[in-house]
Design brief:
Elements: H1 5-8, H2 15-18, H3 34-53, H4 55-66, H5 70-86, H6 88-98, H7 100-118, H8 124-153, H9 158-187, H10 189-200, H11 202-208, H12 215-219, H13 232-239, H14 242-279, H15 284-311, H16 321-350, H17 354-359, H18 362-381, H19 388-405, H20 412-425, H21 432-440, H22 445-474, H23 478-504, H24 511-515
Length: 516
């Protein structure tokens, strides 16, 4: 890692009150039930991200069914992908109030409903609402908890765990492409979407596996010793979080005061209920309802306070300048990855390579190599002598190079090689939660990662329709890849410049260092 959780995390307080003896860690951290969380997240990635990567099959069916332009039809896929990620910050509010398990179960029901309703679509605009919005919001409510839970259950091997869980995207893209292709051929695209909706109900089972950790287990994670090498870049990045670290104290104090007020409210309600018992039993039902409503209001207020303070309060994530640069990168990065998945079937058809592509689709090549890319990059990043940040940047450089060279390849073999490199280098997605946590700490991972995937969602929302719109004008996809690749390069440059800016500024002493 390029920075440790102790340097950047929000859990900043007086250790003397805690005591010198380390808290015994939960056996489920880095083991036990943690691997069930990995399995749950793996299945979520298969059913959500894998299905979205296979939407190129349905996109061709919609083009034939509704006879609309490629730009308009591409909005269906991009809305589903984009909204899944854009709702991230708002799903963080649900997680703060309801927890990951309930949020994921509700999202699984909503996602299945979106698929089933889309089977009755009469035009493209109907699909905007049912598949784009309904299924997209449901996907977002399952996807973010799946990522956050892996981050909570793993400390020593987090990059590997995230890599294993997110390989579900590659497996899903390969399996769902074959499944949707078979279902569309045998039953038609409408029945295929209905069947896929029934399969998506398994997301509720995945959500049920997301057993929450107790608060003391999350707090005790900061006593887990984790060895890693620090370099000059690590110091620069850790300095970028000093403002957040100092503001974290204020956030914790406000949270304690809020908890005290909430307890007073509940105590007063319980006292009233006891008095009601002694006076008369007729008001018991009303008092119980009042107590339930009070508890619900306390939960909502507490969840909203945590959510609001993370984005706009004293401990705002936007005070971290490297994190802001990370957001700018995310705004340009994801479209370069999703455009090939949506438009590659059309590109292959344009180059008269359909016969070869039917034997082994190019999207399946990306999906399969993507699996190995995530695992291998995760293993490399967990090595003590390797910087996760450097691995992340190198993978990004490889991917943007492939995107810029893809239009130059017009044979199946050359396209297959470039697609394989795209699949491997895009394995850096497994490192995004790790990089995000190192920037903001485990406590604010849900909200911070929600912002990142929201920026990715904006990129996915406009990328495929833009590529379709360019094709409608030029009858080529070349300019779509060139423009998206150049914008992607701009985002990478922002990541490269930010540490340099930090190094030029002298490091201020924190409150803890000043006391020493």
């Amino acid at each position: 890692m390029y920075a440790s959780r102790e340097d950047i995390g929000y859990d900043f307080g007086d250790d003397s009150k805690v005591g010198s003896k380390p808290i015994k860690p939960n056996p489920n951290i880095d083991g036990g039930w943690a691997w069930m969380i990995v399995l749950s997240s793996f299945l979520v990635h298969i059913l959500i991200m894998g299905s979205q990567m296979a939407l190129g099959i349905l996109n061709m069916e919609w083009l034939e069914e509704f006879n609309q332009s490629r730009g308009l039809t591409a909005w269906v896929s991009s809305l589903s992908m984009g909204i899944t990620l854009i709702v991230g910050p708002f799903i963080g509010l649900f997680i703060s109030m309801c927890g990951c398990r309930k949020t994921a179960i509700i999202g699984g029901i909503l996602n299945a409903l979106g698929w089933i309703l889309s089977a009755y679509a009469s035009d493209v605009h109907y699909l905007f609402l049912t598949f784009g919005v309904t299924a997209g919001v449901g996907s977002g409510m399952v996807y973010l908890p799946a990522v956050v839970m892996v981050g909570q259950y793993f400390q020593k091997r987090r990059a590997l765990a995230q890599g294993l869980s997110t390989t579900g995207t590659g497996f899903g893209a390969f399996l769902m492409t074959a499944l949707l292709k078979y279902l569309c051929t045998e039953f038609g695209w409408r029945n295929a979407m209905f069947i896929q909706g029934a399969i998506s109900l398994n997301l509720c089972v995945c959500g049920a596996l997301m057993r929450p950790l107790s608060p003391k287990d999350i707090v005790s994670e900061k006593y887990v010793v984790k060895s890693n090498s620090e370099d000059n870049q690590a110091k620069a990045l850790s300095h970028s979080a000093e403002t957040i670290k100092s503001n974290g104290v204020l956030s914790e104090e406000l949270e304690k005061k809020e908890d005290a007020r909430n307890e007073e409210v509940l105590d007063s309600v319980q006292h009233t209920e006891t008095g009601g018992k002694s006076r008369s039993g007729r008001n018991m039902y009303g008092l119980r309802v009042l107590k339930t409503v009070s508890q619900l209001m306390v939960t909502v207020r507490k969840g909203f306070a945590i959510w609001y303070s993370s984005y706009f309060g004293a401990a705002s994530l936007f005070t971290n300048r490297v994190f802001v640069a990370f957001i700018i990168w995310a705004l340009f990065a994801y479209s370069s990855f999703v455009i090939p998945f949506i438009h590659l079937p059309e590109i292959v058809k344009q180059y008269n390579l359909s016969s070869q592509n039917n034997i082994f689709p190019l999207t399946s090549i990306i999906a399969i190599v993507h699996i190995f890319g995530k695992v291998i990059l995760g293993i490399i990043s967990d090595l003590p002598c390797i910087s996760t940040w450097n691995v992340f940047l190198m993978a990004n450089f490889t991917l943007v190079t492939c995107i810029l060279t893809l239009p130059l390849m017009q044979t199946y073999i050359s396209l297959a090689v470039v697609c394989a490199l795209i699949g491997f280098s895009s394995g850096y997605f497994s490192l995004m939660p790790v990089v995000t946590e190192d920037l903001v700490g485990i406590k604010h991972l849900a909200n911070a990662y929600g912002i990142i995937i929201c920026a990715n969602g904006i990129s996915a929302l406009f990328g495929p329709p833009f590529a379709g719109w360019v094709y409608d004008i030029t009858h080529k996809y070349d300019f779509s890849f060139y423009i998206s690749g150049l914008l992607y390069m701009v985002g990478i440059i922002f990541l490269l410049l930010q540490p340099c800016i930090q190094k030029k500024q002298p490091r201020e002493k924190s409150t803890e260092e000043a006391q020493v």
